[in-house]
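Hello K.,

You asked for the raw outputs rather than the summary table, so here they are, unedited. I folded two proteins back to back in the same session to keep the settings identical. This is the first:
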Amino acid sequence: MENGSGDRISTKRWLVSFPRALPIVIFLLIMAVTVLSVVAIQRGEDSRAAAQLRSRAMAIAAALERRANSSSAYLRAGAALLATQDNVPLSQFRTFVSELRLDADYRGHEGIGWAQVVRPDQVDEFNEMMQRTAPEGVRLHPWPDGSQPFSVPVTYLQPDTERNRRALGFDMFSEPVRRAAMIEAERTYRPTATDRVSLIQDTDSVPGFVIYMPVLEPTPTGRRLKGFMYSPFNAPAFLASALELEEAGAFAVRLYDGDAQPDHLLASFGEGGGRSATELVSIANNPWVLQVESPDAGGLSGLSMATIIFGLLVASLLMLLVRMLTQQALEDEASLQWFEEQASIRMSLTRELNHRVKNTLANVLSIIALTRRRAAELNEFADGLDGRIRALSATHDLLTQSEWGTTPILSVVEAELLPYAQASDHEVEMRGPHIELAPNDALSLGLATHELATNAAKYGALSQPGGRVTVHWRLVADALVRIEWKESGGPPVPPKRGRGFGTDLIERIVAAELKTPVKLDFEPDGVRCVLTIPVRQPTPFAIRAKSGPGQVEFKSALPRYLRRIRR
């Protein structure tokens, strides 16, 4: 039980100590877990996409190699047949090609051709043969310049189409790329593909390639090159035929005759932008590069987006829940503080009341003692005591209205001079800035003003028509106000006069309370009194003082405290 209670207290302390940080921290923790989950999901998605991309690249590469192997098989068969023939007439070659029964696996090629070796002394004989078997005007071209040991012109190319006829008579050995492939095919005695070339029968320079298979004839000393069986391929059509077997789907596919460089590009399909997979492809003894590229995903996967949304919802709900718990904890804490504050206020009120009662009783005792000492008869004593206690009561009323806070000077002076200010046979002027005094200082000023007003009503300016009393005050320092009482228009003040109670009260009691000297002059034209009063905040009961922004007044401590917390 104790452990459980301690945990609750610790949790509540955290909620109260960090009312705004704790919900944010919890939100950030949940979002951190969400981000880590999204990263893990994305890595899994990336791995799966990479595996899928790799698998698709391998499948397309296999389809391309099957296409090339099928072509190589046909060329091997033709080479084996033609190696046994002394001459290769056109009719026999047509029969051979027709009996191959080329099926759909051979799509993408331009046909199957025969290119015999023509040595320099056989050029005229070759041209005469082409005049008999080919359209008119077909001759060996370009004409041999003597730099090559022989020529390898296109002799036959089936099927017999208008496009294929444009290639007849072309010396393929005169072109460097084709010549390199033929030399390699003769050296290895294997079908060999060229790098990227432009087919002679194409007028729009579509990228293509040619596969050669050497045909060797026996001689007494060995074997001699007789010619080449070959197949020309349109590269885009060759790639498209492979993709018919293995669909690329949304992937982009590019085929290069070597490195994946723009000038080596043979064919491409689709638009990519994402990750890519590269696969080496062997096309008739020639290593090529197949590149398969995924489309640009452009963002997170669906599962990642769902995880983020779910994480945001959970984090927001938890943050809201913690915020509500924090709000409740703050309100509980505010209630406790309010009750503690009320208890402190009650104790302070008790101390303040004791303090005020003692001060008031001390003032009353002093007034009684001085009044008795100066009174000649009982009625005089009663009248003097009544007026002075009424002055104390009037000032107490002002302090009660201000809840024993600071009281304006004008209010204190008006309370004592109000009965005289309404008379029409004399004039009372009160003027000065708005300055507020502490409770004790206000009581002292009230007593002093009452004594001065009583003396003026009996003997001075307020005792006859035409009299004038002015009370002016001004700040002479940041925390010091100077109050001047001045009488004029009354009876002349005698030079010799006895010392009265008012003089003693002002010069002794009031000066002692204010802790500053009081200047009291009985000039011939009227009494003049100057009081210097400190402007200070009431210290014995500061909690009741009228507060500035940010302080709490006891009557509304709890509501204001709660409003401050909510802000």
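The second followed immediately with the same parameters:
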Amino acid sequence: MVISGEKLKYSTCLVMAAVLATFLTISGCKSPSDYRTEADKVGFDIIREKQEDALGKTEEINIERPSDILRRRLLVEQNLMYSSDASLGTDKLKPIKHWPEFNYPWSEPSGSSQDAFIIEPNKPVKLSLIQALQVGALNSPEYQSRKEDVFGAALSLDLVRNNFRNIYGAQATSQLSTDTTGDSTVTNLETSGTMELSRTLKNGIDLSTMLAIDLVNLLTQGGASSSGLSADATVSIPLLRGAGRHIVTEPLTQAERNVVYEILDFERFKRTFAVSIAREYLSVLRQMDEVRNAEENYRSLISSARRSRRLADAGRLSEIQVDQAVQSELRARDRWISAQEQLKNRLDSFKTTIGLPTDARIELDRTDLEQLAAPAAKTVEDVANEVKTETTRQIPSADAPIELEPPSDEDAGPYEIDESVAVKLALENRLDLQVANGEIYDAQRQVVVKADALRTGLTLGGSARFSADDGNGNLNFDGGQYSALLSLDLPIERTRERNEYRNSLIYLERATRNVQTLEDQIKQSVRSELRTLLESRESLNIQAQSVVVAQKRVKSSSLFLEAGRIQIRDLLEAQDALLSAQNSLTAAVVSYRIAELELQRDLGLLKVNEQGLWEEFSPEEINYDS
């Protein structure tokens, strides 16, 4: 259209102002920070909704790691080496050009119990087992990644839900052109805008509408035949293939279930992670005890070697026996050094597990092992007292029948429950088994969906178009343009669909086998852990007696050696036996405790909260009649 003079100037300004206002309104209403905040709200709302469905409770899952986590404090306050600012966290990174959010990621303290750690120069930070669980939950990279996986599944669900919401769209274009090739200059302004609305219903019907506006023609009431306003509406209805709520909403159903699976997987991970921390923590304490035993043994063998030298100089021992004592001393030194280096390696591995730098100066609280070992120490004391007060027993003759006494359940621990009851509890409570059974239902639905894809495609479509051509700028619905379309897709070429259908049946079989395999693994692990409990308990009692016997043997061997009634080799063997019995006793104590935790984990009854702390179940709560 051709516009000239003041009318063009006024119309152009008005149109440009309208376009600019529309652009600023649409583009400037939300910032990247607003979108991030909105995504967080949507994601966490979905997580709480699905936590309630899956667990019957809700708990916070924070994907923003605070700036004062112990890892960062150790790097800075212990002056540890690191390669770049990335080691301290994203809030310490230098923003690159065009960074969308000012002061994000931000530095924000956690306000957690980790603030209580006092880091002094050149002094290690002491961690108890409870503190280690909390540190791991906040510092472990894997723990953080698993929380982010849950959040990512929630956002994926929101995206799928969006497919069934009203989808709005708006566009505006404006083009100003000048033609000077003729006798007069002609200026042409073309400005248009469209607004769209579309929605997919859960029964498969697709609806869309569009309103198109020629802004110049509408505002100037130019000489065109139309006043610049038109509307379109289309509808598409699947009648055979792709029809039905169960087919259309399958992606939504799967996305909903995926969030539940991620929540259950994370809950299972928390339990496994807590037990792994406890295992490594107690293993470090066990190694500390072995270092102490190795040190005491080394000192004892040094003393024995010195004594053998004195006795040899007095003519009471041969040089061969002196050499034996020296060799035992050297072996003890080798064991002592090896035990120290193994302790360093285990401590480094433990630091990595809970997300701390391997060169950080930390130490573990030996009190945790002392509390576990207290019953064993009491057993050793009781056995020693029995030996002291023991009267002469009547020893059966050598050819008397030998009856082996099987392990007794009289002193069994609280978690040494009946095997069938334990397996039943595990099959009822294991979260990974719930997921595996859920995946069978997913595979069944996929069979239905893939079978539907083999059907004939029959789609009914329709459209209507209206324009404002009544001279008054109003849409004329009486003079609309209408069309209808029926499309048929015969199932002639279905090679891809055929193969996908066959594979879906194979996936169903595989999902079923996965459940069967997992059931067997659960039974095997539960039965094995119950056996470990019994074995560790019996080993604890046996090693307690071995310690007493070895202590008695070392003491008597030392006296007999002074009296010249035995050789130095007998004393050295007694000292080695004492070291072995002491280490075995500690190993049995640790093994029993770890087996208790692993059994609770594999029964699905060990609960872990958002801070990483566990809550053990009480065996007294088991209903044996159900």
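Confidence is low (pLDDT under 50) at residues 1-17.

Happy to rerun anything if the numbers look odd on your end.

Regards,
P.
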